[in-house]
Amino acid sequence: MPKKRSGGGLSATQQAAKFLGVSVLSGAVLAGIALPAVGALGLATKGSVESFDELPINLKTPPLSQRTTILDAGGGKIATVYSRDRTVVDLKDISPHLQKAIVAIEDSRFYEHGAVDLKGVLRAMNRNAQSGGVSEGASTLTQQYVKNVFVEEAGDDPTKVAQATQQTIGRKIRELKFAIQVEEELGKKKILENYLNITYFGQQAYGVEAAAQRYFSKPAKDLSLQESALIAGLVQSPSRYDPVNDETEATKRRNVVLARMAQVGDISQEQAAEASKTPLGLKVSKPKNGCITAVHGAGFFCDYVRQVFLNDPAFGKTPEARAKVWNHGGLTIRTTLDPQAQESLQASVKNHVNKSDEVATAASVVEPGTGKILAMGQSRPYGFGKNETQINLSVDQGMGGGAGYQPGSTFKPIVAAAALEGGMPATKTYASPYQMDYPAPVQACEGKTWNEPGVPVENENEAEVGPYDMKEATAKSVNTYYIEMISEIGICPVTQMAKKMGIERANGNKMEQAPSIALGTQEMSPLTMANGYATFASRGMYCTPVAIESISQRVGKKSKSLSVPKSTCSRAMSEKTADTINTLLRGVVEDGTGTEAGLGRRPSAGKTGTTDFRYAAWFVGYTPNLAGAVWVGDPEHKRQMVDISIGGTWHAKVFGGQVPGPIWRDMMSGALNGKEAPEFNLVNIPDRKKPDEDKGRGRGRGRGRGNDDDRGDGRGDGRNNDAGGIIGGLVGGGNGDTGTDGGAGTNGGAEPNPTISIPEGFLQGNGNGPGGRR
Asked: Which residues of 167-192 are buried (b: 16+ CB within 10 A; e: fewer)?
């Protein structure tokens, strides 16, 4: 039995039938569109009520899309992102002037009629008949609200939006049916509130709160009479009456609204006249949407958070479901970003590399033991302009980054960890000649072998001739030592260790089963390397990287918490292995290729890396409570870093310790300022006992720049009047005492202080070692 409206009279269904009957019989206009023949509607006049009743009754009202706010770990705002800029407010928080203005200009009989204004329909039909076209519509505010719900449900899908707005009688009938439902369930005040929150007002502003902020930089509750009239007038055509781009048309439209308000008795004629004389008084706030607005250079971290949300099944079973939640917004996302670390990273990057340089730099900082990403940035800003990019150079391709970059010798500690975990002593010695062929065959995974004899590999310079033990080979980044190591232990333990440490290729491909992996030939991202090295810092515990701490979602007037994925930690290696690696890598920054990255009295460890032909240079390092990676290079892998200006400084050749090292040092120093400085758990690694015949071999311990990757070897043989002894003593520090029992000379200076003229390039290595270096 049809349901009657309260107060008696025709039921909702009878109203609709009467309305349809009048419209069809008159052949007139239904809400601003010409009615087609009744056959196209599928409703015969006689059967209109029954067919109307068969339409679905429940209007699915989606949550209104709102802005999403991304916060740092301390609650500070990083950026605001939205599909539609909207802040939902209660009716009490909307100026009464604006409420009256909307009703007056859009549906002055709103409080007098039901879902359908039959009087308005007849008036529209009459005027349209007189004009010979469609000059007036008759949609009520309720019907307009329903249409906007359809548009909101369509989201950003152009096909669905077209279906929601198409001028067909079928859509109008559905709109009418739902409007009746809404009227009976919500009531006039709630309908008006919903309408004011869902409607588009131009300039990317959805809802009156966003519109008030956009045009007048104030909340909707504080809008004056003339300001309210301006915003109300935008509904009919936000582009035509846009006050930002056409003040004249906007003023005319505002005054029409004011006149209508006076006509229906909302204001006096005197008030309307006075308000019409005032200027628009715009105080425009430009749309601030997206990661491009992020503070402290955190645009790429902001985009990474978005990628995490869109890729993690925790936020929806399908990509479409996750995208829908993201686009609807209303989220408050608290992230792991540490503002101190982020500011320090950006300051260091800006100080060392210009955004207009031929090469770029990218860096990431993570917290060992938790996987929290504390900072992320690069020299080329987030944007669309010159020397800007939207490619996140710090992350994997699947998360908005590129295909990655060869990490060079920063991969060697993974090889060492695999060897140590397999039982190899840290005192292991290899012949480590200057040049050799890759040993073949080499055992790979799944019973396979690598067998390509005759492939050469060499060290950075000819002075690097073994034998070496693990400590010295790691400090000097000796290629042939690590090739002999991986040839002995096999490739599979190395790839397995890398996997345990979360170190995977940036393009998503599997690790290639080749011994050259020891020299860092397979592309990685800075975030991957930073988080992998954090495993060493946390004494062997690997934790998956996380960027999101918590998410709250506003649905209507309520907020709910969404479950977020947490970091999962697992043991990648024993504490003894990690402690041994920490001891080895501390030697790199104290007395090896990474001295320029040292943090002074604060304990630190790390490794340099420079690839073939100097397409990329790295420093990856850590303290017990912070790990970070810095990459410098050409993202397109075209510009070799030879004879190049970076950050205003000229470099004949770029090395891992020379450019990335200082960036890492300054970045970490600021990030750690004021924080505790815990010690590593170091192990005793005895020095290799030198043969007696080496007795008297002098070694200047100073590391003259330019002799190899980062600091000169400073080593002269001293035998048979070899000139190397002269250069090693004078240039490598100049004051190396004569060694006894094959021991190293002492008191070598930290920087070269030559007393003779040395031809330029005399101490340079040839830089042709295959597969990544230092």
From this structure: eebebbbbbbbbbbbbbeebeeeebb
